[in-house]
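Input record (one chain):
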Amino acid sequence: MHAIEVSAPGGADALEYISTDIPAAGDGQIVVRTAAVGLNFIDTYIRSGVYPTQFPWRPGSEGAGEVAEVGDGVEKVKVGDKVAWAASVTGSYADFVVLDADDALPVPEGMDLPVAAALPLQGMTVHMLTDGVTQLREGDTVFITAGAGGVGQLFIQFAKSRGARVLTMVGTQDKADLALKAGADRVFIQKDFTDITAELSTQLRAATDGRGVDVFYDGLGKVTFDAAVESVRRRGLIVLFGGASGQVPPFDLQRLNAAGSLFVTRPTLWHYIDDAGERSRRWSHITQAVLAGDLDVRIGAEFPLQDAPAAHEALEGRATTGKVLLIP
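The corresponding structure, as predicted from the sequence alone:
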């Protein structure tokens, strides 16, 4: 089989396309023939050394495919089942992937495997952001960065279904059109700002009659965090869920006091899905929303597995919209 591996931290060119043996299932494990792999910014953070790991390292958390082998002690999954996953034992950038059987997410009948591969991390992240980190309520006004991205488009749809008013920012007019199509109430274009902190916060205050947004969902980090502090209402919430523009440097907690007794959280999905029951509930809610037609999953780009370096460059260069997949 073929796989992608990284021998040492580096740029996208550190992703190597290799030939290797098909892995075997251990006790309590399954082997899945991969149909599609979901790309996520965390893959680039680990590859580049922002998040530590042991090298050599095989990237990829999520994907979907068909069970090819089951190990001893596996009872709930059988060969031929279609499953997705948010975490794997061997890394998802490969033709075959080993999972702990308990981590397999059942793909519901009627859902295509590429769509299922796009949902574990981004779909359950959106569920966590709207029903976990906080409980979005009808009438809330929220802002999210990168509204044309994979998380952004899903978030807009899910938040709107809960009755929230959604404001967002994107990089280009084409991306603005996608965010509006997803249901955003207002879209700002980043290149129109010369000072994001001052100008974005001014716009968000104006859009809320000076009050500020209830929640500022920040997936960019470094370039938008100061704007978040200036844009949230008194006793409002900043949810820092990514760092696509770089990590937020250390800051004085007294700023939260001065800005209106603000709350800040830096959630990671794993703390919201490590319980099997909670993980099952989030997966079920997201997949059922897709099947019901309430949530449209947009696959923005597909790359062959061997073109993983180009896929990483496109993702890091913010040249993509919707979900990016690798196809073995």
